[in-house]
Write a structure and sequence with these properties.
Length: 245
């Protein structure tokens, strides 16, 4: 579902998203990219983001036999590294992927400050995400992370496109841990499909049952889901752990 009003084309939304995340002069950019040192993301909140997400992952991972061996971890939308700094120490290697090279470099820096895990930086073009398979071969990833990202993508269809790429990159039996914003049915939780710069934090939402079914259909079997109706940062978060079939 989408909000009432004039919808922008998928091509325009993709272009607007690319422009927004390239514009580091926007005062919201540091916070939206979850860099430490923004107006909202101070050191304490930066640490809390990764700590909370690792705890949620461990809670859901108990449903597949406890703390798994992480192997090669890829985070799509690594930002300033708030999640990476907690997950990377458990991994054999870490792929820091983002659409902005400043973010991949910052994430690599903070990972290296906290662990000896090797880091590979990958910058992806918003308009051509499928090119990621040139840098990350199919079946080469053990854990796919995507947190505080899927609500920022240009459209629900674009988000599913990214998840199909996740399915391609994951080896059979590997895990994906993602967060979405869910629609409650109220019009203000529908995907607006217009004015990316204004709506970016709520650009894409999913009905929980639709997302669950879509993942299962593309070979990402949902294992469990945890809902966070409200956090210090926003509302209507759903965290899903899936296993590649």
């Amino acid at each position: 579902m989408s909000a009432l009003g004039v919808h922008h084309s998928e091509e325009r939304l993709i272009a607007d998203a690319a422009d927004y995340w390239a514009d580091r002069s926007d005062p919201r950019w540091l916070d939206d990219s979850h860099w430490c040192g923004g107006r909202r993301i101070d050191e304490g909140r930066f640490d809390q983001i990764g700590t909370d997400h690792l705890a949620l992952f461990d809670q859901l991972a108990a449903m597949v036999g406890g703390r798994p061996h992480l192997g090669r971890v890829l985070e799509w939308g690594v930002g300033g590294g708030a999640n990476a700094v907690r997950f990377a120490p458990r991994a054999e290697s870490f792929v820091a992927l983002d659409i902005n090279p400043h973010s991949t470099a910052e994430a690599a820096r903070v990972i290296k400050d906290h662990s000896h895990t090797p880091v590979t930086e990958v910058v992806v073009d918003v308009a051509a995400p499928d090119a990621v398979l040139d840098d990350v071969p199919a079946g080469s990833v053990d854990l796919f992370l995507c947190l505080y990202v899927l609500e920022l993508v240009p459209s629900p269809e674009y988000g599913l496109r990214l998840m199909r790429l996740a399915a391609a990159m994951l080896r059979p039996g590997a895990l994906a841990f993602v967060q979405i914003k869910y629609s409650t049915g109220a019009t203000d939780t529908w995907s607006p499909r217009r004015n990316y710069r204004f709506h970016n934090a709520n650009m894409t939402t999913y009905r929980l049952d639709h997302f669950w079914t879509a993942m299962d259909d593309m070979g990402l079997r949902p294992v469990g889901m945890t809902l966070v109706p409200e956090s210090a940062l926003d509302q209507h978060y759903g965290y899903v752990l899936m296993q590649r079939t």
